[in-house]
Specification:
heterodimer; A: mainly alpha; 5 helices; B: Peroxisomal Thiolase, Chain A, domain 1; 2 domains; six-stranded mixed beta sheet
């Protein structure tokens, strides 16, 4: 994840409180979704950014996940994301995040 | 009244191996300025000529290997000789660096480029022996002695030219104006590379026409990426006419069509419209090469122990004329455009430039044989974390066709193999954007292997920081009815 973005998320988590912050991912594939998930929950896995060794444990969902879809107007979702969801093999991303959430902390 | 339906009468490519110019690609140039030791790393990873010539994607680009061979041959493609099939008709020519550098000097009418005498003595017989290059070699460029070259380099008012990974320079290009960034030697070099490569593709077009000895072209449209101009008009233009002059197209005038990587499609559409309207009889659309894109991903390639694969300049020329009763047709009724209101999202863009014209023409997916867009060689982009660009595009197009009700979801997985083209083009922006495929399309549509193909290209307008929009355009090529 971009170092600048990591810094911004760290700042927001500090100023708003972790419990008041949620991350919505929009990464286009499994690999980048998992890296981003890991970075904002367990810390930067590359140990190069502001979140290296920082376990924010933020609530994190991909926009394709059912929990997110449930709170978005279905018609709007279909208009803006329906085709992209189809193109990007959303199911594999959703499945990978489900597994990542169940994995024990490193 | 004559039948003015626009047809493609010829389409040819050139691929120019330029390892010595890779250092002047935008990324290597910036990187080497910041970290001079990078130059040695770069030089160690350059491909020898024979390796570049036999590299499978390069052979496919020139029509010397089939598109299917890209699916049949496992990667890595580098470091192995591509299977040679002599039954294939070439669609273009591979040009060695020595000839190209000599042509850069010959094309420079203002004599900013000078070559070492010994280099010219080696290069000029090579030019004379080449049917493609011989017409350019009727004069002598500015020559310098080794001592004079050394003195010029010490003065520092320009940049040295190198062949391959050699340590000793073989020429020099000086700034045309000491205060004008638009006429810096580096910019002049970019523009000369575009001019010479475009002129080579145009001459190659004539070599491909056995019955045409003299060019009879009225107008040239350049869709090259470089902006030619000076401090008062950085993108002043008309690279087209400069290339036409150098190629010996004496009856032609020309102009440039600019639209980032998408430019070839609006250029083909404009050229076809000029023919169909009767304004001009014969129009050439030419895309000259892009020096700034050499070595664009070289850091990733060095990091992964891959040779610097972005070591070739590429150019394509297409001849559009009125109906000759045989050549493939450019269907102007099929043109798809990308309106402002469609925004920049990829799916909306594809709806505008593919689905809308298909609906207008009442075309089903089953009646389009090939959809053709950015054909970047995945072996260059995957190691640079850019993914397989053609594959990604076809996935998105398939999704757009499904969500538009033109295709079933079950048809998505093999859509690219059935309806697409695998990536093989060097990362030369506009060249990779469907233009690289036009020589292949001409052959396949003429032989009857294809009924039609839908070309589309997209432009990242936001790169120029004037708008956050993108653009796109499409056009259908069809077998002659």
């Amino acid at each position: 994840m971009d170092l600048e973005v990591q810094g911004r998320i760290k700042e927001l988590a500090e100023s708003l409180g972790r419990a008041n912050l949620m991350v919505v991912l929009g990464a286009p594939n499994v690999d980048s979704s998992l890296i981003q998930f890991e970075t904002v929950t367990r810390g930067d896995p590359t140990y190069s950014g502001p979140l290296a060794g920082v376990e924010l444990g933020l609530d994190t969902y991909h926009i394709f996940e059912p929990a997110m879809k449930a709170v978005i107007d279905a018609e709007k979702y279909e208009e803006l994301l329906g085709t992209i969801e189809l193109a990007l093999e959303a199911e594999t991303i959703v499945q990978a995040l489900r597994e990542a959430r169940g994995a024990p902390a490193q | 009244m004559a039948n003015l339906i626009p047809v493609i009468k010829g389409a040819r490519s050139v691929l120019i191996h330029t390892p010595g110019l890779v250092r002047y690609g935008s990324k290597p140039w910036r990187e080497i300025n910041a970290h001079p030791s990078r130059l040695d790393e770069l030089k160690r990873s350059l491909q020898p000529e024979q390796q570049a010539e036999s590299y499978l994607p390069n052979r496919v680009f020139l029509g010397k290997a089939s598109l299917a061979s890209l699916y049949e041959t496992e990667r890595p493609w580098y470091g192995r000789a591509a299977p040679i099939s002599n039954d294939r008709l070439a669609m273009g020519e591979f040009v060695e660096e020595k000839k190209f550098i000599a042509l850069l000097a010959l094309a420079d009418v203002f004599k900013h480029v000078s070559l070492l005498e010994g280099f010219w003595q080696d290069a000029s017989p090579l030019l004379r022996d080449s049917p493609l290059c011989e017409p350019f070699a009727r004069t002598t460029p500015a020559l310098v002695t080794r001592e004079r070259l050394k003195a010029e380099i010490e003065k520092g008012e320009g940049i040295p030219l190198f062949a391959g990974g050699d340590a000793e320079p073989i020429g020099w290009i000086r700034h045309a104006h000491h205060e004008d960034a638009s006429l810096h030697a580096h910019v002049l070099l970019e523009n000369l590379c575009a001019k010479v490569s475009a002129a080579l593709a145009m001459r190659e077009l004539l070599l491909g026409q056995r019955d045409v000895s003299e060019p009879n072209i009225d107008f040239v449209l350049s869709c090259s990426e470089e902006a030619v101009g000076d401090r008062y008009q950085r993108g002043g233009g008309n690279l087209a006419k400069a290339a036409a002059e150098f190629a010996g197209f004496g009856s032609a005038s020309g102009m440039d069509i600019k639209n980032f990587c998408a430019a070839p499609i609006p250029a083909l559409v404009t050229g076809a419209a000029l023919v169909q309207s009767g304004v001009f009889e014969n129009v050439v659309v030419v895309g000259g090469a892009s020096l700034p894109k050499l070595g664009m991903k070289f850091l990733y390639h060095l990091d992964k122990g891959i040779p610097v694969l972005e070591d070739v300049l590429a150019a394509v020329a297409v001849w559009i004329g009125p109906d000759d009763g045989a050549s493939p047709v450019i269907n102007l009724a099929s043109v798809g455009r990308h309106p402002v209101r469609s925004g920049a999202a990829l799916d909306k863009q594809l709806k505008a430039i593919i689905v809308e014209p298909m609906n207008r023409l009442e075309l089903k997916v089953s009646s389009v044989d090939r959809f053709v867009t950015e054909l970047h060689n995945p072996e260059i982009t995957i190691p640079a974390n850019g993914g397989d660009i053609p594959e990604r595009n076809y996935k998105m197009l398939a999704a757009v066709l499904v969500s538009s009700g033109k295709m079933e979801r079950s048809e998505m997985p093999d859509f690219m193999k059935r309806k697409g083209v695998p990536g093989y083009a060097p990362t030369q922006g506009h060249i990779a954007s469907a233009l690289a495929y036009v020589p292949h399309a001409l052959q396949a549509l003429t032989k009857g292997e294809l009924r039609n193909c839908f070309l589309f290209a997209r432009a990242s307008l936001f790169l120029g920081q004037l708008t956050q929009l993108s653009d796109g355009m499409s056009v259908l090529l069809e077998r002659h009815p």
